[in-house]
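TA notes, week 10

Several of you asked for a full example with nothing omitted. So below is the full record: structure tokens for the whole chain, then the designed sequence directly under it. When grading your own attempts, check the secondary structure regions first.
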């Protein structure tokens, strides 16, 4: 079952579901589903261990007149930022990190602001975002025409946009940072089992579960890799597991302690469950079938069709014992006289007496797949081998099926396994050609095969698929656009893409862009200055000449003083000596939470009370993170022993930001260096005997680095992801729990070594 069932069953909390959708109405508060009412509901869901999805499409656009106050509306993006800040606060006390999905319809007037709201990946960090794309919009994209923007409250047309320009902006965002994703909302609503209760507006955080307002789903996955015997699928064994799992998830509905009464009521009226699969890549390996080929796609279609059909057979059996779900008669499964029909008046599904309105979903399986020791969901293998840090010793961790095949066929050797783990691939002459495509990994597989596999599973799935389409770093925007169109053509309900390294490069790209803007502004300023001089007339030119003369003299004097200062500093540097270490030092250790884990900072002082050395600890001994903080500590210690004031060290470190942060307001920690600066700041406060924050000095303008080309990415010995800058590796994308490499899969960043997931 999903993680909340594993963690909360038998405990006082008793909340067993992973995903919820909450409505956001166009009112600050209406006692039920206004903006601040839903904010409270979100906090309760997060506190119970669930993730939440929202459609902000009901909110009026930015700057719209609010008649009750004659003020103007803030718009959906501003309120999404409010929800993001609340998630930051609540997640600190729960067992799971709060995760959200934010969705806006493509015909909302604020759609362009929404598409770009996560261009800066340090903002709105607790949300995945997707655009709800309609069939009408896709038709306009195909025809290269404009489409209407609709006011959500009045339903009036407020304007038009070129469909292809909006589409290209969506594609650019996905190429640049992996967001927004797209949610094909009309395709999802075509198979809404209970349309009389409402339409799908949003999904859960990873996108695989479209839900109604106040809807919930209990998820579970079968490890299909276990059902391969003697080179063939054990269909009878899989059938028994499907029936047992369906029965289990049905029981969870009644055993669950839901966080809101509205959720409790709806869950028992429609009794939605979501049974999916994991270990699919393992199944293909054991059958000797490559993932990226027609045979692999057809096997995926066959597996999901079998799971879906057998789950419905069990749901029918349960309906005989317990009755159909209460909303059955008006659902798409109901009798001809009362069932829901499509716009053409046709049945959507054949009549079946089911206990559950939906039975299948392919959900992310980050935690449970690690527990089961299998591949994640329907994703390809993450890696055949990597170097695992075990108690400070790097050991090769190689796929068990790969090792078994190598031993069976006689080409196994410890040396080969070591080389494969260090290189991260199996393209060695000792590995037979027949096995190399079978063990293809996520980044080896072309994006179109990711989408074709997703479509194969979608064809026999009540809900949707949690799947990431991986691109190489050098993939073009045109390639991403082609894949988005393919997903729509193959009737996927949504698509999420990730270009390798795209999020890590974001800060550098922003810096480069800022540099370009600054240069343009400077050029404009010079042009305006020249215009002013021409307009000033003869007197103006004379005054300007005098001023230029005075300015030249001041610059010459300034250059002379600067040269003298540099000479004195250089002379002083030659005389500067590192202080000797006394026999005994006193020290204070402070604990600081950082985006990468808990940091311990020890500041020692000599017998005169002067700071002397700084020691730091973060992560495991011998790990990449520990190496970085040890280097930082040594450099700070060298500075202090060489006479650099600790206040200057504090000024240099405080405020350094990274691609993630924790805390809120005055408690916000933006990076590990910022955390060290905070610890130093507290030490200075304690020494001064005050309990107020130090006033920060005015900081100078920092030069913005320019990146000429993307950094090629490699894998370090510890499995961490590295980027090369001038042939020097720097750590990026490390797991905050174990320091291993993070992968973007199934809609979120996750660690395949320890199970950490940024989506909870």
């Amino acid at each position: 079952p999903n993680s909340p069932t594993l963690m909360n069953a038998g405990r006082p909390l008793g909340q067993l579901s992973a995903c919820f959708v909450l409505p956001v109405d166009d009112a600050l508060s209406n006692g039920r589903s206004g903006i601040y009412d839903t904010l409270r509901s979100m906090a309760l869901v997060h506190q119970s261990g669930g993730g939440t999805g929202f459609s902000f499409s009901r909110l009026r656009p930015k700057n719209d007149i609010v008649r009750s106050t004659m003020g103007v509306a803030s718009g959906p993006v501003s309120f999404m930022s409010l929800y993001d800040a609340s998630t930051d606060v609540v997640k600190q006390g729960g067992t799971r990190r709060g995760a959200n999905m934010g969705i806006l319809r493509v015909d909302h007037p604020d759609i362009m602001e929404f598409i770009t709201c996560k261009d800066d990946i340090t903002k709105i960090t607790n949300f995945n975002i997707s655009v709800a794309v309609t069939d009408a919009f896709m038709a306009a994209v195909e025809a290269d025409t404009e489409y209407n923007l609709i006011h959500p409250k009045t339903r009036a047309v407020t304007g038009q946009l070129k469909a292809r320009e909006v589409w290209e902006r969506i594609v650019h965002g996905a190429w640049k940072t992996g967001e927004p994703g797209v949610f094909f909302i009309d395709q999802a609503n075509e198979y809404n089992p209970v349309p009389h209760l409402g339409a799908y507006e949003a999904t859960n955080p990873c996108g695989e579960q479209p839900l109604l307002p106040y809807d919930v789903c209990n998820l579970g996955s079968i490890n299909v890799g276990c059902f391969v015997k003697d080179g063939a699928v054990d269909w009878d064994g899989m059938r028994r597991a499907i029936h047992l799992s369906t029965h289990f998830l049905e029981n969870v509905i009644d055993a669950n302690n839901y966080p809101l009464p509205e959720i409790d009521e709806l869950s028992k009226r429609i009794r939605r469950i979501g049974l999916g699969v994991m270990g699919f890549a393992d199944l293909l390996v054991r059958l000797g079938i490559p993932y990226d080929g027609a045979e692999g796609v057809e096997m995926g279609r066959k597996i999901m069709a079998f799971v879906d059909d057998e789950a419905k057979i069990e749901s029918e059996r349960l309906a005989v014992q317990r009755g159909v779900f209460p909303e059955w008669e008006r659902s798409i499964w109901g009798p001809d006289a009362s069932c829901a029909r499509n716009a053409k008046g046709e049945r959507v599904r054949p009549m079946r007496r089911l206990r559950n309105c939906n039975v299948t979903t392919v959900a992310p399986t980050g935690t449970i797949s690690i527990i089961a020791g299998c591949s994640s969901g329907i994703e390809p293998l993450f890696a055949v081998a990597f170097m695992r840090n075990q108690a400070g010793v790097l050991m090769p961790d190689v796929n068990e099926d790969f090792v078994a095949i190598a031993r069976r066929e006689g080409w196994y050797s410890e040396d080969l396994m070591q080389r494969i783990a260090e290189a991260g691939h199996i393209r060695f002459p000792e590995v037979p050609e027949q096995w190399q495509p079978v063990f293809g990994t996520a980044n080896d597989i072309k994006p179109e095969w990711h989408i074709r596999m997703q479509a194969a599973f979608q064809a026999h799935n009540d809900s949707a698929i949690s799947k990431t389409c991986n691109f190489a770093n050098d993939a073009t925007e045109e390639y991403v656009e082609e894949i988005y169109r393919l997903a729509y053509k193959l009737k996927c309900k949504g698509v999420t893409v990730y270009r390798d390294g795209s999020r890590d490069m974001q800060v550098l790209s922003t810096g480069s862009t800022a540099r370009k803007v600054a240069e343009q502004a400077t050029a404009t300023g010079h042009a305006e200055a020249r215009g002013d001089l021409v307009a000033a007339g003869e007197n103006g030119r004379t005054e300007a000449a005098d001023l230029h003369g005075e300015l030249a003299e001041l610059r010459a004097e300034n250059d002379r003083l600067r040269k003298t200062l540099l000479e004195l500093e250089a002379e002083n540097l030659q005389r500067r000596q590192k202080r000797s270490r006394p026999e005994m030092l006193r020290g204070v250790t402070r604990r600081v939470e950082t985006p990468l884990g808990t940091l311990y900072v020890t500041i020692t002082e000599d017998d005169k009370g002067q700071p002397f050395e700084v020691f730091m600890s973060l992560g495991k001994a011998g790990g990449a993170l520990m190496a970085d903080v040890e280097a930082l500590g040594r450099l700070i210690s060298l500075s202090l022993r060489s006479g650099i004031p600790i206040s200057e060290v504090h000024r240099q470190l405080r405020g350094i930001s990274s691609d993630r942060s924790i805390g809120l307001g005055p408690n916000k920690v933006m990076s590990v260096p910022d955390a060290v600066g905070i610890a130093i700041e507290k030490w200075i406060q304690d020494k001064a005997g005050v309990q107020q924050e130090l006033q920060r000095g005015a900081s100078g303008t920092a030069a913005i680095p320019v990146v000429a080309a993307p950094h090629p990415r490699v894998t370090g010995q510890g499995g961490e992801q590295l980027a090369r800058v001038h042939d020097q590796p720097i750590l990026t994308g490390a797991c905050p729990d174990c320091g291993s490499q993070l992968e973007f899969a199934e809609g979120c960043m996750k660690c395949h070594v320890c199970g950490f997931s940024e989506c909870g």
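The first strand starts at residue 19 and ends at 22. Use that as a sanity check on your answer.
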